Amino acid sequence: MNTMKIRKIIFSLILMGPALMIFSQDLSPKEIIRLADEKFNGEKTSTSIMAMTIVRPTWERTIEFKNWTSGRNYALTLITAPAKEKGQSFLKRENEMWSWNPTISRLIKLPPSMMSQGWMGSDYTNDDILKESSVVNDYDHQIVGEEEYDGRLCYKIKLVAKEDAAVIWGHQVRWIDKKDFLFLKSELYDEDGYLVRTELGSEIKTMDGRLIPSRIELIPAEEEGQKTIIEMKEMKFNEPIQDSFFSQQNMKRVR
Amino acid sequence: MITSASVLFAVFFALLFRSLQLGSYDHMFRNAIESYTGYIQVQHKDFWDEKTVDNTFPYDSQKEQQILSDENVVAAIPRFESFALASNGPQTKGVLVMGVDPEKEVHLSKVTDKMVKYRLTEESIKKIQQDPYIPEKAKELAALFENAAYTTASRLQLDLGINDKDASQYMPSIERYTEFENGTIQMGEPGVWVGDKLSQYLQLGIGDTIVLISQGYHATTAAGKYEIKGIVKLPLPDLDNKIVYLPLDICQELYNAGNNLTSLALAVKDNDDKVIAETVVRLSTVVSEDQKVMEWREMNEVMVSQMDADNKSGMIMIGILYLVIAFGVFGTVLMLTAERKREFGVLVAIGMQKKKLASIMTLEMLLIGMLGILAGAALATLLILYGVEHPLIFKGEMAKMFEEYGMEPKMVFWSIDTYYIWQIVIVALMVFLAIGYPIRKIFGMKVVNALRA
Fold first, then answer.
1. Domains of chain A by start residue, with CATH
2. pLDDT score for B128
3. What pLDDT is stored for residue A20 in this prediction?
4. Are strands B40-44 and B57-58 parallel, antiparallel or unpaired?
5. Distance CA B333, CA A151 (A)
6. FRET partner for B194 with CA separation of 20 to 30 A, picked from B374, B383, B396, B422?
7. Any bridge partners for residue A106, and if so which?
8. How many helices (H) and strands (E) does chain B have?
9. Euclidean distance between CA atoms B36 and B29, whole angstroms
């Protein structure tokens, strides 16, 4: 009797052991996406300086800009180079988006229909730059496997857009570094399930104490010879920025 | 006599109709070509299919010299043409931005001739109405044409219903009241000219600022604000509604396009279709590989096919006209035969051969037909010759209606040409067909019956 009980307990422990271990270590797919997203965008705020290179079959050009974000709702982007476009700024406040152009001193509200259009002529859409939609809240997540990418072991997570979410993608597949929670590769599909673009993260560097991919390459699936490369030059996380920073007045002032 | 008259009408109307139609096409093309595309253009090879500022070519003075050395080329006019959003406060509209060298444009679009010189503003109408010497009718008409713009005094005079003989009496003061001051645009100086209709839509006048936003060369942001220096009124209302002229270098700067051009429009010596085609072939060997030479037919494709369709419907109209006329001629012949049945019977009864009678009849009919055709052609020629010199210009409500349909209120006659022969041949053929009836009747005639008729 006793031995039976002991044996039963041992047996169940043997059975449950690995399961427990998995549980203690395994995060939900949503959690993984959240961690990766926050790692890149900062839990509260982020300030960054970036350079964007637009590559086209016959030409390429580079734009430099500064970017401030606070949570999901506020973002401000200021173009710093080239000289002709310097001073243009873009503001996102909740659901509204504005653009300021100093040469014509006009503040223009971007209509929602422009969200899926290229930003500054790049392959990035206005939606990407101003982060209207959230990879955490607007999608249902599911781990579909583990794969190695660029020598790093990654979670492969499929994100399916929620029915009522205002997003432009049907679903996404993202490869996220298991150790450091980095978006290393993403494939974005439209509503009909066709691949629209691939995003590749590389040149992993430490910025403001965090390990992040400092170069993101965006490759549209259907346009041959086109891509857009973003390089992070400087990033700071969670520095206090007041909400009043994200104002129309500041769009015209900010340096 | 009746037969002769109906043939006369047939020839007269067919000729007149055709002349007007052909004349209007020619006029429309001339307007489009001369105020916009020119007869021949050199462009980047992809520009026509994809009109972006990326499909442009750098200006090359050596190439220009080579092009200019062609025997049929008079001048090469550099242009930079693109689209933009133009705005004034809450009013925004898509416009056609045309970077031009105002001095060189004289060779082709003569845009300086299309500057608005007179305008019936609220104020000027008031002045006209307060002037006791101006006739009442002109005052009424002035109110009807409020805000209309004029490039010539003669058009203004026409709209106000003032006769040529009264013109010297009234026009000087009316011209003074309605005078409109334009400034010039020059290379190197920011400033624009806008189409009259566009300026009205955007509610902009001289001295106001227009804001242009677009995408420039290599996807840069193109944005600029410019002072309006002048208003132009183009004879193509469609173009008048969206055109913004900028000095070429200012336009290139706006689009960050360096010294690139979208096109080199060529002014030619001889604009005959065949000569143009030959010139295009010659120039194609001169221009570099990424450029192509286009002639006006390709560039005005929409208009060409529109004209084609209109031409076809015009042909159907003429066809119906012929049908009606053919029955008319046939009807008179029919009646004539019936009336003279007894006469024919008597002639045959007293010994005339039917063959002889038939040939006399044919001769008679031919004579009548010829008379009709010649008289009709002569009448039409008189009118057309007058019309070529004095095109029909509509005024009042009619003119407004034309403009609403996007046409110039003007109908032009086409001078005497091959179409004349065709109309005459067709009418002659109808006469021949009609002759067949009395001849058959004569041969099939029973003398006894005919005598009793």
1. 29-253 (2.50.20.10)
2. 86
3. 44
4. unpaired
5. 101
6. B396
7. A101
8. 17, 15
9. 10
pTM above 0.90? no
Q: Which helix (H) or strand (E) holds A74?
A: strand A74-81
Q: Which of B212, B220, B225 sits opposite A85 (nearest CB)?
A: B220
Tell me how far CA of residue A118 lies from CA of A102, B47, B56, B405, in angstroms: 20, 22, 22, 38
Nearest Cα to Cα of residue B216 among A51, A97, A252, A101: A101
- Measured CA to CA in angstroms, residue A33 lies from A71, A90, A175, B423 at distances of 16, 26, 10, 81
Would you say residue A19 has pLDDT above 50? no
Half-sphere exposure of B287 (CA within 13 A, CB side): 24
Burial profile A1-12: b = 16 or more Cβ within 10 angstroms, e = fewer: eeeeeeeeeeee
Query: Is A104 in Cβ contact with B219 (below 8 Å)?
Result: no
- Contact with chain B for residue A61, Cβ under 8 A: yes
Q: Do B224 and A103 touch (CB under 8 A)?
A: yes
Q: How much is the pLDDT for B119?
A: 87
- Please give the full DSSP string across A236-250, using - where no structure is assigned: EES----GGGSSHHH
Pick from A84, A108, A121: which is nearest to B219 by CB? A121
Closest residue of A to B211, CA-based? A104
Residue of chain B with shortest Cα separation from A79: B221
Whole-complex ipTM: 0.72
Measured between beta carbons, which residues in chain B are less than 8 angstroms from residue A59?
54, 218
Structure tokens at B225: 């604000």
